[in-house]
Amino acid sequence: MSSTEPRPSRPSGVREAFASRPSEAPDAFVSRPSEAREAFASRLTAEIGRVVVGQRQVVERVLIGLLCRGHVLLEGVPGIAKTLLARSVAEAVRADFSRVQFTPDLLPADLIGTLIYDQSDGTFAPRKGPVFTNFLLADEINRAPAKVQSALLEAMQERQVTIGDETWRLEEPFLVLATQNPIEQEGTYPLPEAQVDRFMMKLKMGFPALDEEREILARMANHAVPRIRPVVGPGTLALARDVVEAVHVDGRVRDYVLSLVRATREPAAFGLDIGPLVEHGASPRASLDLYRAARARAFLAGRDFTAPEDVKLVAPDVLRHRLILSYEAEAEEVEGDEIVRRVLDAVEVP
Q1: Could you give the CA distance from residue 156 to residue 131 in angstroms, rounded to a whole number?
Q2: DSSP letter, residue 282
Q3: pTM exceeds cut of 0.90
Q4: Torsion of CA 178, 179, 184, 187, to 10 degrees
Q5: Does 209 score more than 90 pLDDT?
Q6: In whole angstroms, what is the distance from residue 245 CA to residue 68 CA?
Q7: Residue 325 in contact with residue 300, Cβ under 8 Å?
Q8: How far, CA to CA in Å, does 344 sit from each of 10, 120, 279, 334?
Q9: Where are the beta strands (DSSP E) in the chain?
Q10: Domains of the chain by start residue, with CATH
């Protein structure tokens, strides 16, 4: 095409991506929903799988969070590739990545930035912190004190950061991937319920199976970690998000979502005997997140409608961390997963 020829028009409502790059660039422009779905469900998943062995369900849930603009909390023991997963997703979607190791002496300025005094003109200039990124890995988030948690809360919920008397919007995509170790409690702070509720999903990462660990040894025993290639960029992500928001949700499936969440608050109305175990049920934000996550899961499965199965599959990840259990539940060693399982068994599937 010569420089005098007009460029072909782009579909409205979708951001221009890498206009200066050739058509064979990793983020080549896509214009059809099927192409966006292929980029996420096939190419992106396969590229991450070149580095992260196994953990397919966790990878899918992280992609759901990315598609729904939802933050994700990863829980698992050290050494199971939580950090590697976060970095791989960021590299595969051609996004900026920052990692912050949370410690008890961490200050809000270490996360969001601070004002620096300039002696030359006697003014204060902002120095932005690592939160100004696309993917923020908050490593061992439960080790930071309350002031740091409150600073992160503004970024997670409002997608903005305030330093001094100035406020900056965070660029899209912005996703917080936080990790916590479930077996080590020394020097940790329980996350505030308000902040936990801001995480769209809490994912539990376990040890790999024998065949998977054998594959890990074969790939990485000599520190030869494969390099991630960017396969999705901002334009494809924007289109994929638009397609997810257009996925059809039948009224009966919508009512199913509401029934699952309400059953955690009013268990007796659904024939459940979990009342003494649950002090507070899931919030309306849980209904929204469950609804959105089910649509994104249907998108990744190649459908333009949401099925009850989509809701059931993502319900444990969306609800487990939002239930505030009673002392009786702790005494009986009943966890949130068990409560969610009982709710799913009791609520009628449409």
Answers
A1: 10
A2: -
A3: no
A4: -30
A5: no
A6: 9
A7: no
A8: 44, 64, 19, 16
A9: 71-75, 97-101, 113-118, 123-128, 135-139, 160-163, 166-169, 175-180, 199-204, 278-280, 324-325
A10: 29-103+133-159+168-246 (3.40.50.300), 247-350 (1.10.8.80)
Specify the 3-state DSSP secondary structure of 301.
Answer: coil
Count the neighbouring beta carbons within 10 Å of the beta carbon of residue 342. 19
Of 295, 171, 169, nearest to 243 by C-alpha is 295
Q: Is omega for the bond preceding 126 within 30 degrees of 0, making it cis?
A: no
Report yes or no: 334 and 294 within 8 Å, Cβ to Cβ: no
- Separation between Cα atoms, residue 200 and residue 157, nearest integer Å: 11
- Residue 208 token pair: 């790999």
Summarize pLDDT for 295-306 with one digit per residue, the tens: 999 999 989 899
Strands 123-128 and 113-118, how do they pair? Answer: antiparallel
Amino acid identity, residue 2? S
The helix/strand/coil state of 23 is: coil
